[in-house]
Amino acid sequence: MNKLSLMSCDGVNKQKLNIIQRYYPEKYITISNLPAECVHYLPDIHNFIVFVLHKFITKQRIEKMLIDIEFEDDLHSKTGFLGNCIWEDKHYRPNEFTIQIDSNMNIKNMFNTLAHEMTHVIQWAKGDFYEVVSKSNGQNKVYKYKGKEYKSSKISYLDKPWEVEAFGRSFTLILQWCDKYDLEYSSFIPEELLSHDQLQEFITR
What we know:
Radius of gyration: 17 Å
Strand order of the largest sheet: 1-2-4-3
Structural class: alpha/beta
Number of helices: 8
Number of strands: 7
Shape: globular
Strand content: 15-25%
Distance between the termini: 41 Å
Helix content: 40-55%
């Protein structure tokens, strides 16, 4: 997990590994199983992760972090989720994370999912969100989010405040990243989101 790794079923990404490592010296990011047709988006994926981290986390802290991005075939059909974020080292203010993303999506939906899961990385890393009590069946977990405890079994997925934040922030993170690097919104945000009235109001301010 200390170097950027690229793998695909046809092996084309492995041939690019040395070039990729030359341009992406950060040791805290790994990306694996990116679909071959999306390889040319690798610089954008990497740049977006770095952008989000530096927006919320200090440079000194980032240097201690490890973030593994794994693209997985049929993740949604296996788990019911398009993406997932897991801390790997400690439950409070962890430094090591694994993000899983369903690879059977177009690049716009991949970016939307990545932005959502990176929001969870920030929540965990800053200590805004952490697990207090965990049962083996996963249904009785107790989380603390911004000072308040929530029982996982007592609140629906879309009502969980950490998910509300992740859904809301994912769009704005992509917009802010596009603005910083003069990128087209339409290249990274799904059309149905770009056409939303509130988002159009935000864009045209």
